[in-house]
Records
---
Amino acid sequence: MTSRLEVKVRKALPGFTLDVEWSAGDGVAVLFGPSGSGKTLTLQCLAGLVRPDAGRIVVNDEVLFDAAAGINLPPQRRRVGYVFQGYALFPHLSVRENVGFGLRGLARAERRRRVDEVLERLSIAAHADRYPRDLSGGQRQRVALGRALAIDPALLLLDEPLSALDLPLRQALRDELRSILTGWGTAAVLVTHDLTEAYRLGDRIVVYEEGHVIQAAPRSELLWQPSSRSVARIMGLRNVLQGVTLKATPDRIQFRWRGQTLEAVNSPTHSYLPAADSPLAFFIRPEYVRLIRKDRDRVDSAHHMNLMSGTIVREVDFGATWILYFRLDEPGVPAQGDYDLEVEVPRLVYEILEIDRDRHWRFSLHRGSIHVLPSA
Amino acid sequence: MSPDNLSALRLSLQVAVVSTALNALVGIPIAYLLARRRFWGRSLVDLLVTLPLVLPPTVVGYYLIVLLGRRGVLGAPLYELSGFTVAFTWYAAVIAATVMALPLLVRTVRAAIESVDRDLERAAYTLGRSELRTALEVTLPLARNGILAGLVLAFARALGEFGATLMLAGNIPGRTATVPLSIYTAVQTGESGEALGLVAALTALSCLVLVVANRLGARAA
């Protein structure tokens, strides 16, 4: 069944206003953004736990909330499964009782059958008579999912489902969660402030900032085309820079930055054609900057485009990689404080090139790894 | 122990048990509302319920007479209708003890309810439970130790109530003379032997209550 979710919500709280509008279809929609940007509040509005001041919420063809029409279904009647941050399992009830909690309307035998089925599907049948405090983090997650899915919800909401776990477990459970969500096929909205989680779990990503949606796009699109500098910043992108357009065609954009003339590939799906001399925002992933080996004296211009040179002003050891902060040889004020470009090199490269001894380098940027941001 | 002392002890226990039951009936809903709802007049309810904790018991007793005495605000119509008056009966002792113990119960239970994770209640709502059913199936069971501790405290307070009881119920041997009142009478009339037995009984009971309350408090924490 194809599902359709339409959300338009306005809610004013003291010191914070949520004002968002987005939609999603089948699969998992991820609400991504920093803490305090209104993601959880949105879930609470969807579940009917918080009443918006204005707006409209439609799941499939059912109107759950419509301020203009005076419709506001209570949470009890919304058929929305909610997996809370920290899971909120009932500590005084067994796993079986937790999972069956939402099935009181069913006859005893039917209820038992449904609970057994859910426990079986989530591989927690062996723990049916245990209590939440005796379960591991992963088992708790499955019980919370089971409790929410047992009511056969039209929509599943998950609030930071992995934040209660420590890092190694988190990664394992992220994949488990992904396969459960895919396997169950219920349309879901998941909240996270972790970019990796957003990408692993989301089919569509809605980026929140300070109570507003600043971009809503399919996962693949968001990764390579953040719609603005603020999306790029929230996504934790580094080297978000500003240049001046020279010439833009549907294939290529040429621009000036810190005295260099650079060329980037224009977006294949939505080409962006800024006027000459207009400001242009772009970003360069630090791991895509290529240092040029000095033992290869010939520089191949077909291979090495967007050539620059500079000196390392600072460096940070991250174990597997080194982060190098380069200042261009070009005179003038550096673009990012005391440096122009952040470059990430694997530890092995750092050692082979003896970067600890040699601080001045030429480097190149493939035009495909400069990403132009539509609208600065 | 003298027959008078025995009847005082029995009366005290009876008053304490009934007023604790009343406290549970009235106090737990009030505590729930104060902990979970925002409603008009909430601060006023909070104030009224807490007031007996800080007011001198005789002042509370005075208000109770104004309210429930034969010519009181509620007492007069009641007397007109039924010829019954609360004052100077053991019911009066129950009411005085209930009002004096209410703040202890409400404050303890409210804190226990506030410590229940609200997401548990929200989860119950999304799973189809009404607010009342959620309170009965989730909130109150999880606040159980706090509720028991509150009831124990209320029981102890009711057992020791003196000032407000004296004002509203008087000190009628065999009818309204509870243990604290009987101790007062015994000391006043120089029967220190009589007083000693009751003092020992009340001390032992209070110690027991404290131990139970501490145990419950430790488990609740």
---
Amino acid sequence: MHDNDGIMKEIARALRAHRPPVSASFDERVMSAVRRLPPHSRFRLWSRLTTPRTVTVIPLSWGLLAASVALFAVIGVARAFDDVQIATKPMITALFPNARAPQPPQRVQFVLVAPDAKKVAVVGDFNGWDADHASYQAQHRGGGVWSVTAPVPVGHHRYSFVVDDSLWVADPTAPRVVDNDFGVANSAMVVQEQK
Amino acid sequence: MEGSSDGVIVARVLRGDVDAFRVLVNRYRDKYARYAFHMLGNREDAEEALQDAFTRAYRSLARCEDPERFGAWLFRILVNRCRTLGARRGRRARTFVVDEGAILEAAEDHPAERNAWREEIDRGLQQLRADQREAFLLKYVEDMGYDEMSQLTGVGVSALKMRVMRACDRLRELLSEVHSA
Amino acid sequence: MNRGVQIVVGLLCVARTVFAQDARLSARLDKPTLTAVTAIVDSARISKLPTAPLIDKALEGAAKGSDGQNIITAVHQLSVRMGSAKRALASNATPDEINAAASALDAGISVRDLARLRAAAGKRSLTLPLAVLTDLVGEKVPIPTATNLVLQLVRSGVKDAELAMFQRNFRADVDHGADPTVAATTRARGFVVARGGGATTKPPE
């Protein structure tokens, strides 16, 4: 048998020599996924335009035009949608003094008792149903109790818990939404501004 | 186009030639499938991680600082995808799936014997902690130096050395048990 | 200049919305589904319906691993319900009210009852009353009973905080085994009486 000194070399050699076959359709699957993404020639221009910059409101006619271009640059960061809503609040108020400023999101606590879970996330129409969204990952508090306090905009929302990235669980303490178009019922909530 | 350097192909893709990306997929697919397979333990997960890495690389291509070293940059993305996928699936019982396709690989002198040995190694690898397995594969299979590994993983050199050492100790133990049984 | 700036910012906000929608949907939907969903969203925008719920519905379907046809059907049905909701609630209904009303329609509440609620509520937001109504129906309180209870609550002037309390108490009762209709009726009576009305009080027209 292999002596201990040589065994690491044997292992490394065997692993290096291994070329696991990849499915014949692999390349095509990657290219299909890639073609669904925004093409690059527009994307580069967009990313240059949307790099966040400091925005100042200048209350003169040309200044307003410059401010609206800067507003465009800030707003265009699609993935920072929620942050942008908050960031543009003073801008909108300055440009439209009579307009009602958007209400800030409220901090809402979500709690689920799931003793066997290894991961619990909150998903809903406030975070694109994204189970990997960093702000909506619940922490285990002990005894199978998971909770997270996270921002939710004021208004009517549908949401759910996702356990271990695979199991969708409606909030047992919340009303259900009847429309379970996709075979799994969601929960409903109405978030109101704290005065 | 196939013979062009990574930098040339990346520049074409960034000018809007989506199909040029296929050359990079073809170029790096097999090389990195090996790492993903040994890290995750089965072909399906490995292909998912690899496909995900390519898609992310495409999406972020404008941010690749050194397009001539696209491969290394892609590999960094793959290492991270394997960590994420491994963490999500790692709590299920780790079973190493025998890859029927791999058994029919290109002829070697004693293909059945070599494959059985490699499968034992892979079973042993799957019993390591993920961070030890990662460090072991980067050091022994991808042949990286510790400084390079540290840059790739964000982990300090001494911690990496410890992980590699523990991985080796554990693998020796597991594989000696198999052979003395 | 003010008007000019409004137009510029309005156009930019539409561009923002379209691009944000493109990025999130195109990252998660296949091409045929994306094309169909985009058409439904564009049509809703032209009809001055809120588009965010439609995009969210598509994202929800993608997150749940649903196939393209199901996603398209769900988004289309939601847009139809939102159109009906908007007509029932009148043109100044807020996006949240339309969204909540669309859920209520899906639960079986009629367009006529939506209009009755609007008439009873006056300027007050209907978002929470609609959500409470949908919840009652979801817990199998018969639709006519649930609708009348919520109408009484709204007419008696209960505030949103009290309505939220009503809903919590109702759910707690149901969780403890109470019959939903009895629980809802009992709790509603308590609120209405506390505000100086009674279960038998004829609501003012």
